[in-house]
UniProtKB/TrEMBL annotation:
<dbReference type="InterPro" id="IPR012685">
    <property type="entry name" value="CHP02304_F390_synth-rel"/>
</dbReference>
<protein>
    <submittedName>
        <fullName>F390 synthetase-related protein</fullName>
    </submittedName>
</protein>
<dbReference type="InterPro" id="IPR042099">
    <property type="entry name" value="ANL_N_sf"/>
</dbReference>
<dbReference type="InterPro" id="IPR053158">
    <property type="entry name" value="CapK_Type1_Caps_Biosynth"/>
</dbReference>
Length: 441
């Protein structure tokens, strides 16, 4: 019973009580919450206590930045619930193999990140944090009130006790394993008939194709993209198939970072996380986020640098003072670095520039992936719509990339054009990937 009350309190606070008249009121409220949280973390985490020695909690904005490598290296001292890295990893890997994600350690949920950045990360969530997350998620994602009846179909690589927290009498929640063949999912979805469909855009695209062919006969009121970068090509295809706006949830191991409002605008969840911006362009529109989650205690996330690239958004018609995101453009280690024509330096090329160049070059590209395979070699993988000329369309795409690289001052690279290959089942889709250079920015 306590779990239901905890979820309800979090839901009500998020949906009805946390309102601010303007940006100043929000940041003032947030600052007090963060400082109070820092005080508690300092007492409970030996790692952070040592890291912040000699600094007051009010100076948190200038504390040392950590990343996944530091977190995993100092896992035992960083977490506040006495969980050992070796034991947690063993439990998480056993769950991956058995596909039974219910076991926990001392009431703490243990999970494993997908490891697309090269090293897998562990995350810990206490029961209280699970219930708080569930209430917040319901408040931000449900199209109606908590009293409305909804049937949610959730597609992910791995289930978690975290997600099962949102089940209730009116809210049915069903996990669909990405490792299971899509044909089986289509049959189950036709029986279940979800009102809310949640999954990575690569999976949603497959379901959208099944809907267009008539194999999938569902009409979800809300479709939500998670886990992967949402490419404009996928967005338009999914929206055309299911109708309405494709919504997004930006969540990762490090927290529930953003979600869309009723207008489809992606807002940072500044009522639970503080985001500092490490700008990577002269216009100060693109940044790498440094995350401080002031609701997580079991595994504190304080001044944690993600490797995502974010483009700032403008104000939203919904009137919320929460900052907006125009797009999540991929990972910072997937920037391309091409030789400059001046011969002195490598020129960084943002993933979204490359994606836009491909899509602007041809209207007949149905799937694509662009890979920097070497300093001066790029592989372009394409799938074209029926009856499209491979020679004409591939030449148009390469010409569009040439134009982009010339505009940015890059030496024209060598191109290799190939047929598109979909990622293996359960592997995240990355349409722009740097396999040559993975150094941090």
């Amino acid at each position: 019973m306590r779990d239901k009350w905890s979820i309800l309190r979090s839901y009500l606070a998020t949906r009805y009580l946390r309102t601010w008249k303007d940006r100043d009121a929000l940041t003032s409220w947030q600052e007090k919450r963060v400082v109070r949280h820092i005080d508690a973390v300092r007492e409970a985490s030996p790692f952070y206590r040592e890291l912040w020695q000699g600094r007051s909690s009010e100076e948190w904005r200038s504390f040392p930045v950590i990343d996944k490598g530091v977190m995993m290296e100092r896992f035992d001292a960083l977490n506040t619930v006495g969980v050992k890295k070796e034991e947690a990893m063993a439990l998480a890997l056993a769950a991956e193999r058995s596909r039974d994600f219910s076991p926990a350690m001392n009431g703490v949920t243990v999970g494993l990140s997908s490891g697309t950045s090269g090293n897998r990360g562990l995350f810990l969530v206490s029961d209280w944090e699970r219930y708080t997350w569930a209430g917040t998620m319901l408040a931000k994602v449900l199209p109606g009130s908590l009293l409305s009846s909804e049937k949610v179909a959730f597609f992910l690589r791995a289930d978690s006790r975290l997600y099962s927290s949102v089940r209730g009498r009116r809210l049915q929640f069903r996990f669909y394993d990405l490792l299971v063949p899509i044909e089986r999912h289509i049959h189950q979805l036709n029986v279940y008939r979800p009102s809310i469909l949640v999954g990575p855009p690569s999976l949603l695209r497959l379901l959208a194709g099944a809907a267009q062919s008539g194999a999938l006969a569902i009409a979800p009121a809300k479709v939500i993209s998670v886990a992967e970068v949402l490419d404009p090509l996928d967005r338009s295809y999914i929206e055309a198939s299911f109708g309405g706006t494709l919504h997004q949830v930006y969540q990762c191991t490090e927290g529930f970072l953003a979600s869309t409002c009723r207008f489809g605008t992606l807002h940072i969840n500044e009522d639970i996380v503080a985001i500092q911006k490490e700008y990577v362009d002269a216009d100060k529109k693109r940044y790498v986020p440094i995350v401080t989650d002031f609701t997580r205690v079991s595994q504190p996330i304080i001044r944690y640098r993600l490797n995502d690239l974010i483009t700032e958004g403008d104000s939203c018609p919904c009137g919320s003072p929460l900052a907006t995101i125009a797009s999540i453009d991929g990972r910072s280690d997937d920037l391309f670095y091409l030789p400059g024509r001046d011969g002195n330096s490598d020129i960084p090329v943002f993933p979204d520039y490359i994606a836009r160049a491909v899509l602007a070059s041809s209207g007949r590209v149905s799937e694509y992936k662009v890979i920097q395979a070497d300093r001066d070699r790029i592989v372009v993988m394409l799938e074209l719509q029926d009856y499209a000329s491979w020679d004409e369309e591939s030449a148009a795409v390469l010409s569009g990339l040439d134009e982009l690289f010339h505009k940015l001052g890059c030496v024209t690279p060598a191109y290799e054009c190939a047929r598109y290959e979909a990622p293996k089942q359960g592997v995240k889709l990355r349409r722009v990937e740097n396999k040559w250079k993975r150094g941090k920015m």
